[in-house]
Amino acid sequence: MLSKLLIRGATILTMEGPDAIIETGEILMEDGWITHVGLPGSAPGYFDMDEVIEADGEVAMPGFVNCHTHAAMTLLRGYADDMSLMPWLSEKIWPFEDRLTGEDVYWGTMLACLEMIKSGTTCFGDMYFFMDHVARAVEKSGIRAVLARGMVGVAPTGAAALTESEELVKNWNGKADGRITAMLGPHAPYTCPPDYLGKVMDLAAKLKVGVHIHVAETRTEYDDMLKQYGKTPVQHLDSLGLFKLPVLAAHCVHLDQEDMEILAQKAMGIAYNPQSNMKLASGIAPMAKLLDLGATVGIGTDGTSSNNNLDMLEELRAGSYLQKVGTMNPEVLPAYRTLQMATIDGALCMGLGDRVGLIKEGMRGDIILVDIKQPHMCPQHNLVANLAYAANCGDVRTVIIDGKLVMLDGAVLTMDEEKVMAEAQERAMRLAGK
Ligand SMILES: [Zn+2]
């Protein structure tokens, strides 16, 4: 028998265009698929629903897609701040990460999933290690994820990481009722030499999966690559043939004109991480220009030690404002365009654009309900501007992922919130040696 879930009474922002708003409408989901979007009373089989959600005073919109993070780094939130990237990594982050066990990564990811669900994120792109444990947390929490085992070619674990990546794809791609997709995750061009990247590319082609990689995050990386290979990071990767594969390139802060054209034409997507780039003083990524060139750009929070939260509403707003001030042009990244980046474009960046990111018949039901009866959402001149520029994560009240109710009126149904926070707290203290 089909499981049928109906949302009624909501204002629906379908994300199929700035004016594609149904003032009072209903959305029917059957076995996870959105099968009907329309006016009140128009859904078929009105009286045999398994679940009906009354959503008066709420906006239904696609859940946010966080297309670049390292979820289990929640355990490092507030552990090391206000430092330069290299000493931050080598003195604080990497030694802490060396002490992580698989079980730590599970609870760190559970905390991340809890935080993401509560703030309206329904899908995230992850790059980390102990990925079996990450996948377990994704399965349990009910969220959707695109998982990559981070691979550092220059590390002693480089060869094992290739094997583990292959296992991740074989064991988890398409699992958790189809909510998990796998990619390969070579960390960056400066940590993965050409011969290693060659192996990654062969494996990706063999397994028919995409590649998630950090690219041109810092000025130092850009200058070092020029010195070492006589090419920019993007042109170096292009010369190796990486962009023949579906590539999600994270950061892309330091680019020349040719780099931007290569990314716009050849990358599956770019993950814009504005708050991480600001906090680590990496620079302002030229996203307004990349969008002009036709690039697909999604938004990511990056890990919570360089952000320090996973709040996509905050991230998309910061991303829009940073582009405005960076270009000295308030017209770039307008509200609707930025919401697109945080939903459908993020899905496209990870190869899921045919499945999530819109409220539309034929898509999977990844939908959030946002309370608009709040002082900071009043008056209602412009729903889209209120969502992009005034809403905060606490306004997200209900979350549906893959047609299943995961949070109802602020209460997460798939996890014991107290237990997740207590485990994360205890493990984080142990790891920090406290
Ligand atoms: Zn990252």
TrEMBL record:
For molecular function, the Gene Ontology terms on record are: 5'-methylthioadenosine deaminase activity; metal ion binding; S-adenosylhomocysteine deaminase activity
Pfam families to which the protein is assigned, alphabetical: Amidohydro_1
Q: Which organism is it from?
A: Desulforamulus ruminis (strain ATCC 23193 / DSM 2154 / NCIMB 8452 / DL) (Desulfotomaculum ruminis)
Gene designation: mtaD
Record domain Amidohydrolase-related: where = 60-406
Keyword field:
Hydrolase, Metal-binding, Zinc
List required co-factors.
Zn(2+)
Alphabetized PANTHER family for the sequence = AMIDOHYDROLASE-RELATED DOMAIN-CONTAINING PROTEIN, AMINOHYDROLASE SSNA-RELATED
| The protein's role, per its UniProt record | Catalyzes the deamination of 5-methylthioadenosine and S-adenosyl-L-homocysteine into 5-methylthioinosine and S-inosyl-L-homocysteine, respectively. Is also able to deaminate adenosine.
For this chain's record, the cofactor binding note is: Binds 1 zinc ion per subunit.
Catalytic function, reaction form:
S-adenosyl-L-homocysteine + H2O + H(+) = S-inosyl-L-homocysteine + NH4(+); S-methyl-5'-thioadenosine + H2O + H(+) = S-methyl-5'-thioinosine + NH4(+)
Q: Which residues bind substrate?
A: 97, 149, 187, 217, 302
Q: What is this protein called?
A: 5-methylthioadenosine/S-adenosylhomocysteine deaminase
The answer on whether this UniProt entry bears the keyword Transmembrane reads no
Q: Which family does it belong to?
A: Belongs to the metallo-dependent hydrolases superfamily. MTA/SAH deaminase family.
**Broad class of enzyme this protein falls into:** hydrolase
Binding residues annotated for Zn(2+), in chain numbering: 68, 70, 214, 302
